[in-house]
Each structure stands twice: as C-alpha cells, then as structure tokens.
Amino acid sequence: MQTDKKGAAPRSMLRRKLMIGAAALALGLAAAPKLGLAQTPPTSEVNTTDLAVTDDTVKVGILHSVTGTMAISETGSVEAEKLAIDQINEMGGVLGRKIEFIQEDGASDWPTFAEKAKKLLVEDKVAAVFGCWTSASRKAVLPVFEQYNGMLYYPTFYEGLEQSPNVIYTGQEATQQIIAGLDWVSKEKGAKSFYLLGSDYIWPRTSNKIARKHIEDHLGSKVVGEDYFPLGATGFNSVINKIKLKKPDVIYAIIVGGSNVAFYKQLKAAGIDMTKEKPLLLTISVTEDEIRGIGGENIVGAYAAMKYFESLKNENNEKFVAAFKAKYGEDSVIGDVTQAAYEGPWLWKAAVEKAGSFDIDKVREASPGIELTTAPEGYVKIHENHHLWSKTRIGHAQTDGQYEVVYETKDLVEPNPFPEGYQ
Amino acid sequence: MTAFLNSPKKTELIGFVLLAAVILLVLPGITDAFRLNMVGKYLTYAFVAVGLVLCWGSAGILSLGQGIFFGLGGYCMAMFLKLEASTPEATSIQSTPGIPDFMDWNQITALPAFWEPFHSFAFTILAVVAVPAILAFVIGFAMFTRRVGGVYFAIITQAIAAILTILIIGQQGYTGGVNGITDLRTLNGWDIRTDSAKTILYFVNAALLLGVIGLSMAVRSSKLGRILVALRDKEDRVRFSGYDVAAFKIFVFCFAAAISGIGGAMFTLQVGFMSPTFVGIVPSIEMVIFCAVGGRHSLIGAVYGTLLVNFGKTTFSESFPELWLFAMGGLFIAVVMAFPNGLAGLYKSHAEPLLERFFAKAGERRVGSAEAPAPIAE
Predict the structure, then answer these.
(1) Does B256 map to a domain?
(2) In the prediction, which pLDDT does B317 show?
C-alpha cells in the first residue's frame, strides 16, 4: 500500500498545485481576519535562543519511522505534516518566514529515535519537531527534548500518564477515547458484559485498566475476561473459543499492528458475524489505515471510538481530504493519527504567532488556550496540560474500509492524563 | 620477518595493536562527539561478538540468545541509574514519590525487593557481570550435563530469549515493559548526558573492550583454549580422554555471557536507556551476524564485523530508506555463501599471503617462502 501512495505522488503537478492552492486559500480566508497580513518582525526579536531562524526561513524537524515495522503506520503522519507545512508556506509561512523541514528516520528503533532527536535539536537547531508514533519512541526522545529544551508535537492516541512541558500531545489520551465509547455501548446497545483484549504493552494494558474501572465502578457491568498477546502475534483461535464460551455482549479490542489482520480474519472464520452485534466489537486501535491491511469485508460491523474518521462531514474535513488525496493519490486513506499529525504544524504556527517569537519558552507559554477552528475534526483547543480538548466519535465499519460516524459527544471532552479513581 | 608474521600469536598481537589504534586514535580523531557516541554504541555490541567468537568459533556452541545476557547487563545498570534518578524530590508529582515513574503508573506503591540492592553501585557492578553469568550457568548446567548441543541448544537459547522478552514486557510494573527503563540522568552524581561525559564513556568502553579481547586471547592460547577447540572438533575423544566436557562448555558459555553483560551495561550508560528490544530474538541473531561477518574464528575480526555491519546499517538506511534492508540481507547471504570465515577469513586467504611475499622479498630471504596460505583457523 505504500507503493500505491508513492507511485501516485508525482502525478499531475498542476492539479496538485491547484488543489493545494485552493485548500490553502480557503484556510487562509478562515484565518486571515484574525491575523491580519503577515508582517515580518526582525530575526533578532523573534529568535533570542539561537534557533535555525533566518530573515525568511525557519527550520523544523520531522522524525518518524520510514523504515522498519512501524513505517506503515507512520507514513501517513509524515505525509500529513508535510501537507500542513506546504499549506502554511502557501499562506506566507510563520511570522513571514517559510518553513523548511529536515526529515529524519527513526527506523522503528528507539535508540535511533533518541539519536536523531538529539541531532535535530543540537546540530540543526530546529524550532519544533513533529514526530514519534509509539509510546516507546516518545519515552526514548523525551529526556532529549527536556535536556535541550525542544518542542515535540506528538500525534498518536496514547495511554496518558505523562505531561511534559516540552511536548504538545495532539492525539487523545486514554480516558478521552475510552470513557465516551463505553458509555455509548452501555446506553445505546445495553451492553452488560465485556471481554477485554489487547496487545501486550503499556498502551493496551493501561487502557484496559481504565476501561475495567469504568465498566465495574461506573457502569455497574462486568468484565468476563481479559487477555493479552505479544506484539505481532497471529494465533487467536484459543481466545476466540473462550469468547464464544463466555458470550460477552462486547469484545473490547486493543490489538495493534499486523496482529489485527490475523485477529479479524480468524474472528470471521470462527463464525462471529460482527454485523449481528452478538457480540458487538468495539475497538480503539483500528483506524482506516489498519483496515487497508485487514480488509473491509473482514471487519464490517465493528465499532471504533476515536476523535476522527475520514468520512467526517464538515467543511474543514472535506477540504483536508481533498488536499490530501490530491497530493498523495486517490487511494490514500486518512486515519485518526494522520489527522492529529496534520494539526501539529498548525498548532505550532498559532502558538508562535501568539507569542510573537520562535523561542521555545515563549511558544510553550503561549500554547495553552490556542484554538484551531480549521482542524479537520472540528474545533480543538490546547488544555493547560498540553493535551487537546476534542470530541470523541463512534464509527461503524463498512465493507469499503471506511467508518460511518454514528455518534459524537455533545461537548469537547477534557483531556485528563492523570485520571483520579482510574489508577 | 616471515617467521614473525607466521606465528599466529604475533599476527594476532599486531592485529590487536592496530585495532587499539583504530578505536582509540583514528575514530575519535575523525568523528565529532555525536558520531563518536554512535560508534561507542556499536562497540558495545562488539562485546557480544567477542563472546560469540569464544563460544561459537572456538568451542562450537552456537547460542542464538546472547541478547539475553547483553540485556541483563544493561538492565542491571539501568536499574541503578533509574533509582538514582528517582529521588523523592524529582518524583514529587507521583502518588508514591521516590520510586521509578513507571512503577507509579502501574499502581505499585513500594519498591520491589529485587530492586533494593541496586541502590548500591558496587553491587550493580558485580551484578552486571554476575547476573548474566549465573543465568548462563543455570542454562549451561541444565543443557550440557545432559549432553544437549548443536541445533537443539541454539533453539533452546532462542526460546529463552523469547521468554525473557515476554516476561519483561508482561511485568511492566517491575521492568518498565516495552518502553524499557528510560530517562536516566546521572551516575553517582555525574551527569552522563553531556558531550564530555559521552566522550569519557567512549574511552572507558574502548578500554574495557580491549581488555576483554586481551583476556579472551589469553583464554584461547591457554591449554583451556586448546581443549575447547578439541571438543568442538571431536567431543567424544575429549570425553574419553578423561575431561569433563560439560564443565568446559559451561565455563566458556558463562564467560561469553559475562562479557556480554559488560557490553550491555556500557550500552545503557552511553545511550541513556534500556529496553526489551535488545533482549529478544532479532537482536540476538543480529549479534551472531556481526560475528559471522567479522569471522567467527577471529576476535579482532568480530569487532570489525560489528562496526562494518552497523556503519552499513546507518549509511544504507540514510541513502536508501526503502531498500536498505535488502542490501543488508544481500550482504549476509554473500558472507555465508562466499566467505564463510568472514572478514578475517578474507584477510587470511588474500591479504596475508601478499604480505608474506612482500616481507620475504624485502628481507632477502629465499623467494616465495614455500608455506601454503595459512590454514583457516583460530
């Protein structure tokens, strides 16, 4: 699937430029009244800490895996970040300076991430870094960002329990994703018993811990089973038999990466038809990106709880999807994390403009309260704790690999990375 | 001159001096602090490769689980550093201050008993060597006294590597899980994250590596080393000669494990964290590849092999982000098919005869000193 995107990329430069131009113009119109015309303050004023800022350019870093096992997941984020940077440059850049990016490959290897992060901050002196995907890679770079005072925009939904002054978390933390989804199945579908599944690492384990607390303490329902599988596991028959035996109302699945393909195929082969919703399957780990690997026909009928789906109907999103497909091909899909990655450069731009400076400390101070009305998912806002206020939505998987949005929370859900009573 | 060159001890000594010059003078001379730290990281893998030369090359015991010992050494050091970083002041936002952050996230409220001794630096240094050696002893004792060897032994070590990874990931409250132990700051109050500290650590690492190689050379040239070779080639004869074969095998396996542990500890110090990605099957096999590329019969070759493969990885991956894995695969196939004795084998079969001829002429000795190319051996 990567090759599809790559092959399609150079197609029709003219159309691509037109589409980006159109998208940028639209976004520009939305943002222009607030900002006025871009004026160019002197470099000495906006850069007092020796970052790579000149009179007409500013350097930022992109740090994802483009090789190794994580490449399939992270490619979408890289593409979204480049798209956002292109669009911002079309609008005149940030404080009158064009953004130039330096891309480094984390190679799905955590020490490499730390090494490259250090290179970006120490040798290249970038003003911001958009990157990382897995929690392990974020944990590996975190000390580097704190030591050299950098700013990381991290796009993935993750387990919470972290709040660094040097990171803006543009994905949802665990409670935002979990609680709304569980409330929905309990209220709308009358679910009373749950079977929790997950890949064996910190995000699924922490998420299931929060899920179990919520199910038992707040919904008054019960958990009938909880099982974990090593990353990359492909044998799920024994757990599927256990599920058949326990007959839960809901299978709550947090399986990641390639294991998903085996899991959903085996579920289907075992005669569990998810469209019948007996049991119903709710996941927080399968985005449109993963469905390309699983195959729409193998997951049709499942529900997913996240903040963004490609099929979301609003003006911002339609423009974003059109611009993305114009740049990366009609076959490309956009998952939750890809959208969150797209927000990174825009949030950084807004913070820099509010601060009137590229200095990391000033950008950090300006960040809480930053609003983005042009985000594809709708309105978002940065919380004091560096996470985003965002809505949670439920998607219903279709055979074509898209989700149909069947529910969204009325209000923005407050991010709460250290949830009391859930630990 | 030829006699000097042909004596295996002397050539090995020259190789050792050259290697020391490369590691201590050339590499620090041509790289900046950032790249030097990378070389330092690669050299920590060389400890494992050197252990494999003894274990696999000399004694014929192929272990596909050396990452276990590298990881254990690294984890011992990481536990010490993590405890030092987790002072009650630094962790005051936690519900239980004073314990490592990942324990707090996993609702553990008191430091587990097996972490307690790692408050002591002396104990940690001991544990870095002893923990891998003890585990190797247990494995070796169970396997070798039952005469399990060859492929079966390789498979069992691989299984143990898989089990240990799963254990570390599963027990995330005690081990940090898949994220590993991160955010390590100081060693007895000395900040290991600064450039100057990294440079010092590089030289400490290099000196330790050279020391380990020297020690391994001593082992190989002793009577013990010759028994190891003998039991590789004809185990039964050694046994019938009255030697306790299992004891020798256990010794060499423990020795390899202990030096791998030192490598792991130096890795943690230089990179600043430890994670289960270094314990599992893939890194264990990679380390065997380092050794194979360098030449499994040559201690010096193993170091060059490690450096070559890792430099290759870095440069290939920078220039051909999508193809570099194939290039690496190709390299390994080529090594196994065409140069089964690796870089050291190439040196022996090509470079050495040339050198011999050169010295023979220069020394006005009889032309073409009639010796055949040195047999491929230790």
Answers:
(1) yes
(2) 66
